[in-house]
Write a structure and sequence with these properties.
The complex is a heterodimer of chains A (about 350) and B (about 425). Chain A has about 350 residues and is α/β, with parallel strands linked by helices. Helix content of chain A is about 30%, strand content about 25%. The two termini of chain A are about 45 Å apart. The relative contact order of chain A is 0.11. Classes of the chains: A alpha/beta (about 350), B alpha/beta (about 425). Strand 12 of chain A pairs antiparallel with strand 13 of chain B.
C-alpha cells in the first residue's frame, strides 16, 4: 500500500482520488460501488484493473478524476485536519537531520494526525520501528485504526500515554537512535528519555523538538544541555509554493494606439452628433437613405482591442503575446514551528 | 558506526568551524593543517562524536566538547555587561602586547593549546575591562586559532553537502540541505524503490537517495557525459559501482543519454566464449559483458517504469523532463531541481500542455538558523543565499477521451461550476 510499487489497481486497494488540488479523497475500492463527486459519478469497476495514475471519466461522459496510489504526502493533503499537521517541508528536513535510515528505531511524541508518522514509517521501512505516543485517547484510537488500515501496524507501535508524566517505557526496549518531540513542554519529556531502555546509547542519538514559541526553545535548550546533548542548533524552515503562469505582454505602443483609437472615436462622435443635428434640422425633407448618407458610417465603428478586454481570454490563448511568470500562493505558512536539533554521543564502555 | 575503523572516510570538525575529510589508511599520517597532525593508527577504534586534543603524533586525549555556542556561561551577565561598559573605554588597537613573531616563538618552543591561549590572554592589557560576553568571544576566537583539537564524525550525505556548500556551492548548483531533504520526501524515496535520476552534482543527490534505500532498491543515473560525475560517491565505497564485474545487483547503475533515448544506436554486443579468451582480453570481455547486462537491466526497468524520476541537471529542462517522463510508472512522483525559478516556470508551462504531470508545483524551502543562547536568541546575522527551487508533480496516464466538466457548457451558462474545475488540473 504505502510501501510497495504496485502498478495495477485491484479490488480492496486504498486509492486517493484526485478531484482537484484541494479535494483529494481516500477510497477503498469495491466492486459495483460508485463515487459521487461534484464533478460526476465514477464507478469503482472503471478503476479496478487499470494502472495507478489513470484518468477516469465520469459515467455521464463529462468530468474526470485521477486515481493515485497513496503516499505520505498525498495522504497528508487528504486529511481532514484533526490537529495541526507537520507539513512536508518540515517533516522532510526532520527525517533528514535525524539521520533516519532503513531499519532505524524512532520515538515520536505525540502522534497527532499521524502525518509525520507515515513519513517516518516510509523512511524506516519494514526493518525499522516507529514508537509513537499520544496522550489524547480519541486521536490515539484513530491513529491505531489508520495504521492498521494502511498495513503499517508492523512498523508503528502506538501507545496511549502522557510521556511527560509517565515516560516512554513499554514492555519491550525501544532502543531508539532518533527522537521527535512535538509536545507543549518537551523539556519535561527529555529527562524521561533516560528512564528505561529508551535510547540506544551505543549509537549517537539525534533529537528534534518542534515548538512554535521561542520561550519553549529556551527551556528545551537548557534541559538538552543538562542531559549531555551536543551540537544544539535551532532553525526555522520557511516554505513557499509557487505556480507557473503566463502573463499577457501589453506593449506601450498598443496602449498609445488604444488612446489614439479612443480619441479618434470621440472625434467621430462629435462629428456624428453634428451631422445628427444637421439631419434633424433638415429631417422633414430627407428620405431614410439620405439620412444615413448624411450621418456617415460613424454608427458602429470597430473598437481597437489588442488585449481582448471584455472578452473571455484564457491564459496562453493565440493572438496575444505571453510571458512566463511565477505567482506565489495567496497565503503562506509564515511560521510552523522552531526545530531544535541536538545530538547525544554514544556512551563509552 | 560508533568507532573509527581502518579504511573509513572520516569527517573532521576543526576548532575553526571548518572541516576536512580524511581517509584512515594504516601507517599514514593524518594532516589537519595548523591544527596539527596525527598518525592514522592512533585514530583507529576511537569513538566518533568526541573531541580530542592532539598531544603528539601518536597520542590524543579526549576532552570535554566545546558546545556549539560556547558563550552561554556569560549569557546571564547580559544586563551587567551594559553597566560595565559605561565609563570603561576600550581602545581598539595595541592592547595585545605580544607580536605575531613572539607568538610563533612560543609555538616553536612547544607551547600550545590552552597554555598558549592563557599566555595570549595575560598579554592583553585591557582583558579585564572587557565585558564578560566579549571576554568569552575573545577566547573563543583564540581557541579557534590555536587549539589542536578535532572531532571525528562519520561521513554522511548531509556532511558531504555541507562540505561542497562551503567549498564551492556552484558544484551542487546552490542546493541547500532542506531542499535536498524535501526532494527525497516528494519523490517518495523509500527502501526498495527504483529511481531514475539525473545528478549533475558530485553525486550528492545520489548518495542522499542511497542512504534512504539501505541495501534494497536501485538508483539509475542517466548521465549526459560519457562518464557520470561520481566524485562524492568515493567517500561511500560501499555504493561505488565497480567495473570489475562483481556484484550481481549493484545499487547504482549507469546509462548515458544516448543509450537511454536512442537504443537503436547502441552497438550490437557480440557474445564470446569467455573461457577461450586469455589475460587482458578476457578481463576486457567480462567488463563489456557486465556493462551490457547493466544496460539490458536498465532498459527492462524503463519498460516496467521507475518509482520516481528525479532531475538535477542544467540541460534544458523543458527538453529533458518530458523525455524522461516516458520511463516513469503511473502515479509516481516527478521532482526537478533548478537553481533558478525561471527554469521551473517554463517547465511548468510545458507540463501543463503535456498533461502527463498532475498539478506541477514549484516549492521553495529556506532554512533560517538561530543563535540559541538563552536570553540572546535571534536569527544569525548573515546566512548563505540560496536560489534553489524544486518542481514536483505526479506522473499520470491521461485519457484522450476525457473531457473536463464545463469545457463546452461554459459558453451557454456562465459559472455552472467553480472556476478551478473548468481547467481540472
Amino acid at each position: 500500500m504505502f510501501l510497495n510499487s504496485k502498478r495495477i489497481i485491484e479490488e480492496g486497494d486504498l486509492v486517493l482520488i484526485w478531484i482537484s488540488r484541494t479535494v483529494i479523497r481516500p477510497v477503498y475500492l469495491k466492486k459495483d460501488e460508485a463515487l459521487q463527486t461534484k464533478f460526476g459519478h465514477f464507478l469503482h469497476n472503471d478503476m479496478i484493473g487499470r494502472p495507478f495514475g489513470s484518468q477516469i471519466s465520469a459515467t455521464q461522459g463529462r468530468g474526470f478524476v485521477h486515481v493515485l496510489a497513496p503516499t505520505p504526502e498525498l495522504w497528508a493533503l487528504s486529511l481532514p485536519h484533526r490537529t495541526q499537521i507537520v507539513y512536508s517541508p518540515d517533516s522532510s528536513y526532520i527525517i533528514h537531520r535525524l539521520q533516519i535510515r532503513p531499519d532505524s528505531k524512532v520515538v515520536e511524541a505525540g502522534t497527532g494526525s499521524g502525518a509525520l508518522t507515515h513519513a517516518l514509517a516510509r523512511a524506516v521501512g519494514t526493518d525499522g520501528t516507529i514508537f509513537t505516543y499520544e496522550y489524547h485517547e480519541d486521536r490515539h484510537m484513530q491513529a491505531v485504526k489508520e495504521f492498521k488500515d494502511h498495513e503499517l501496524s508492523d512498523i508503528i507501535t502506538c501507545t496511549h500515554r502522557n510521556v511527560c508524566e509517565d515516560g516512554f517505557q513499554i514492555e519491550k526496549p525501544t532502543l531508539a537512535t532518533a527522537v521527535f518531540l512535538d509536545l507543549p513542554a518537551p523539556w519535561t519529556a527529555i529527562p524521561k528519555l533516560f528512564e528505561g531502555e529508551i535510547l540506544n546509547r551505543k549509537e549517537a542519538v539525534h533529537i528534534c523538538c518542534f515548538s512554535p514559541c521561542i520561550e519553549q526553545v529556551s527551556k528545551t535548550v537548557k534541559v538538552l544541555e543538562e542531559h549531555g546533548f551536543q551540537s544544539i542548533e535551532m532553525v526555522e524552515n520557511q516554505a513557499k509554493r509557487w505556480e507557473g503562469h503566463e502573463s499577457m505582454v501589453r506593449s506601450v505602443d498598443e496602449a498609445l494606439d488604444v488612446l489614439r483609437d479612443v480619441r479618434k472615436r470621440r472625434n467621430m462622435g462629435i462629428e456624428r452628433r453634428k451631422r445628427k443635428r444637421l439631419v434633424s434640422e433638415v429631417e422633414a425633407e430627407q428620405s431614410e437613405e439620405d439620412k444615413k448618407l448624411l450621418r456617415g458610417d460613424y454608427d458602429n465603428p470597430v473598437v481597437y482591442n489588442p488585449w481582448g478586454k471584455g472578452e473571455r481570454v484564457k491564459e496562453g490563448d493565440d493572438g496575444y503575446k505571453w510571458a512566463p511568470v511565477s505567482t506565489i500562493e495567496p497565503e503562506i505558512k509564515n511560521h510552523t514551528s522552531y526545530l531544535t536539533f541536538a545530538l547525544l554521543p554514544p556512551l563509552q564502555d | 558506526m560508533s568507532r573509527i575503523s581502518e579504511g573509513d572516510y572520516v569527517f573532521m570538525q576543526l576548532p575553526s568551524g571548518n572541516h576536512k575529510i580524511v581517509r584512515i589508511v594504516a601507517d599514514s599520517l593524518i594532516v589537519l593543517g595548523k591544527f596539527g597532525s596525527v598518525s592514522a593508527n592512533t585514530l583507529v577504534n576511537l569513538p566518533f562524536y568526541e573531541t580530542y586534543d592532539i598531544i603528539s603524533k601518536t597520542e590524543v586525549r579526549k576532552i570535554a566538547a566545546e558546545p556549539a555556542d560556547d558563550l552561554e556561561t556569560s549569557a546571564e551577565s547580559g544586563i551587567n555587561d551594559v553597566l560595565t561598559m559605561e565609563g570603561n573605554k576600550i581602545q581598539y588597537h595595541g592592547n595585545q602586547t605580544l607580536s605575531m613573531s613572539e607568538i610563533e616563538q612560543f609555538k616553536q618552543s612547544g607551547l600550545k593549546g590552552d597554555a598558549l591561549i592563557k599566555k595570549i590572554q595575560e598579554a592583553h592589557q585591557d582583558f579585564d575591562k572587557k565585558t564578560e560576553f566579549s571576554k568569552a568571544k575573545y577566547l573563543k576566537r583564540k581557541k579557534a586559532k590555536y587549539m589542536h583539537t578535532f572531532c571525528p564524525l562519520p561521513m554522511t550525505c548531509d556532511r558531504l553537502l555541507d562540505l561542497y556548500i562551503d567549498k564551492d556551492p556552484a558544484r551542487v548548483l546552490g542546493m541547500d540541505p532542506a531542499t535536498l531533504a524535501h526532494m527525497l520526501s516528494l519523490a517518495n524515496v523509500r527502501p526498495g524503490g527504483r529511481y531514475l535520476i539525473m545528478d549533475e552534482s558530485p553525486s550528492v543527490l545520489t548518495t542522499a537517495i542511497l542512504e534512504r534505500l539501505g541495501n534494497k532498491g536501485c538508483v539509475v543515473i542517466a548521465h549526459e557525459n560519457e562518464h557520470p560525475n561520481l566524485d562524492g560517491l568515493k567517500y561511500f565505497p560501499q555504493w561505488m559501482p565497480s567495473d570489475d564485474f562483481e556484484g550481481e545487483n549493484p545499487m547504482v547503475r549507469l546509462i548515458n543519454l544516448l543509450d537511454l533515448f536512442c537504443p537503436e544506436e547502441t552497438l550490437p554486443f557480440v557474445e564470446k566464449d569467455a573461457d577461450s579468451l586469455k589475460g587482458t582480453q578476457k578481463t576486457q570481455y567480462l567488463r563489456q559483458l557486465y556493462r551490457e547486462n547493466q544496460r539490458l537491466w536498465v532498459r527492462k526497468q524503463c519498460e516496467l517504469g521507475f518509482d520516481a524520476v528525479i532531475v538535477l541537471s542544467t540541460l534544458n529542462l523543458v527538453d529533458i523532463v518530458p523525455r524522461l517522463l516516458e520511463f516513469a510508472a503511473g502515479s509516481t512522483p516527478l521532482v526537478v531541481y533548478s537553481d533558478a525559478r525561471e527554469n521551473l516556470v517554463n517547465l511548468t508551462l510545458a507540463l501543463k500542455k503535456d498533461l502527463r504531470v498532475l498539478a506541477p508545483t514549484i516549492m521553495e524551502t529556506r532554512l533560517r538558523k538561530f543563535q540559541t543562547l538563552p536570553g540572546r536568541m535571534h536569527p544569525t546575522m548573515t546566512a548563505k543565499g540560496y536560489s534553489g527551487v524544486l518542481l514536483h508533480g505526479i506522473r499520470v496516464l491521461p485519457d484522450s477521451a476525457a473531457v473536463a466538466v464545463g469545457m463546452a457548457a461554459q459558453r451557454k451558462k456562465r459559472k455552472i461550476e467553480p472556476a478551478e474545475n473548468t481547467v481540472q488540473t
